Amino acid sequence: MNFELAIERLKSEGFKRTPSREAILRLLELEDRYLSAGDVKKALAADHPTMSQDTVYRNLTSFSELKILEETELGGERKFRMHCDRHGHHHHFICMDCGRTEELDVCPMEQVSRALPAFVIDDHKFEVYGQCPDCRSAS
């Protein structure tokens, strides 16, 4: 997802185009990692000093519900990133230190389906967590 597609989705769902929403989306378009509401507020504080934590959090939640953003939980905190533009099924590696993500073309669902033959699986989410090379070399 890019900024323009995100704005179009917001408009089509009846959301107004506001400076706060634009700033949040532009930031997330530039970042290839998961960010918390606090990360977003901190990154935007200099240019948007009156933007509240609540405004950031509400917008991130709305964007996630509209499938503009992907959401995960790291260290007990909700984090967000732009939804992947990539077509086709894939999963992610997520750095626990910086939130950087890498796409994975592997999926364990075939094994899971074999292990649960009597069950109907409607959906799944598979993420791998660790340290990226940059964070590993810095520690």
UniProtKB/TrEMBL annotation:
Binds 1 Mn(2+) or Fe(2+) ion per subunit. Binds 1 zinc ion per subunit. One of its GO terms (molecular function) is transcription cis-regulatory region binding. It comes from the Bacteria. It holds the Pfam family FUR. Fe cation binds at H89, E110, H124. Its main location: cytoplasm. Zn(2+) binds at C95, C98, C132, C135. Its cofactor is Mn(2+); Fe(2+); Zn(2+). GO terms for cellular component: cytoplasm. GO terms for biological process: negative regulation of DNA-templated transcription; regulation of secondary metabolite biosynthetic process. It is found in: Cytoplasm. Keywords: Cytoplasm, DNA-binding, Iron, Metal-binding, Repressor, Transcription, Transcription regulation, Zinc. InterPro entries: FUR (IPR002481), Fur_C (IPR043135), WH-like_DNA-bd_sf (IPR036388), WH_DNA-bd_sf (IPR036390). Belongs to the Fur family. This is Fur family transcriptional regulator, zinc uptake regulator.
